[in-house]
Amino acid sequence: MSSDYTRTKPNYTGQYPQKVVSLNGEGAAGFTRVEEWITPNKLRQQYLFGIPLTSPLTGQTLDDDTLKDIIRRAAANVELTCRIDVTPVQRIDRIDFDRTKYLQGWNQLQLSYGNVKSLEEVSIRANNSISPPTNPQTAGIPPEGSQLYNVPLEWIDMNYAFKGILHFVPLQTTFNSYGVIGPSAGAAAPLFAIFSQLQWVPSFWFVRYTTGFAENAIPAPVNDLVGATAAMEVLSLVGPVNRNNSQSISLDGASQAISNPGVQIYVTRYQQLQEKVQFLTDLVKSRFTKSIFMTNF
User: Fold this and answer.
1) How far apart are CA 237 and CA 245, in angstroms?
2) What is the three-class DSSP state of 62?
3) CA dihedral 150, 155, 161, 167 (to 10 degrees)
4) 26 lies in a domain?
5) Is 29 part of a structural domain of the chain?
6) In whole angstroms, what is the distance from residue 262 CA to residue 61 CA?
């Protein structure tokens, strides 16, 4: 299924840094808040400085292709741990209709992922898709189901999109002495009047949105987290090949002993990276994910 960008609404609040209108300090004295994707050379220079990447047992060396694979797996690890997308990907969510959220919470929609780059669709779709189509009546129906109603993107507030939260603010913006009035005109009025009487409907809203950071605009803390995670994997590879703990040479009554930390040689550096990864993980999650969820279950 190809990504659909026939219409889109960008996240005006920004992804990183959020809610910033001007970056006047960007580039001053070499300072930058976003970076290019981490490379094998940066991994060696910034996270593995002074550490040989060649095995003393076999002579094998961790080349750039291997380091790229390690970085890729580290990024996938960060995505799962922090529940964010590092590179752009278009997602779809089926979100339940909650009467309380609709009437009292400005129809708050909590997306599965934060760090929303743009919003492409909020609609109501039927679950009538069949693949492969065995009935001529289902031929031509998209895999997401037939679209029953398409919510204008102008109605969607994206002030908290970086956290994965949307609101239907323009749907309920008329106040009177009794509180908030719902949609009172247009084709959507009868539809929402009916559903506002229901307490809960499963998989009611269909949301299509794009998450992830733009190319060469990775937040420095995210890049740092990927680099530290990748460096830990490298140390776990090169550490165990240092097996000899001590050597002793004796000749004609004279002896010399050489001590080698062996497999423990990189323990201190590994622990430092481990602490850094934990700190950055908490930092990234606090910035791009939700800590409290409202649900019927």
Assistant:
1) 18
2) coil
3) -100
4) no
5) no
6) 18
pLDDT in tens, 137-196: 656 677 788 888 888 888 899 888 988 999 987 654 444 433 344 444 455 667 667 776
**pTM, full prediction:** 0.78
Query: Any residues with CB less than 8 A from the CB of 22 and at least 6 apart, and which?
Result: none
Distance from C-alpha of 169 to C-alpha of 158, rounded to nearest angstrom: 10
> Could you give the number of structural domains in the chain?
2
Q: How far apart are the first and last CA of the chain?
A: 31
Buried/exposed 83-99: b ≥16 CB within 10 Å, e otherwise = bbbbeeebbbbebbbbb
Domain that holds residue 249: 9-16+34-84+215-288
- 258 forms beta bridges with 247
Q: Among 211, 238, 253, which residue terminates a domain? A: 211
Query: Which of residues 184, 211, 238 is at a domain's end?
Result: 211
Task: Say if residues 225 and 81 touch (Cβ distance below 8 Å).
Answer: no
- Do 188 and 219 share a domain, yes or no? no
Phi-psi region of 93 (alpha: psi -120 to 50; beta: other; left: phi over 0): beta
Q: Which residue has the tokens 């790229």?
A: 68
**Is 207 found in the same domain as 95?**
yes
> Would you call 185 helix, strand, or coil by DSSP?
coil
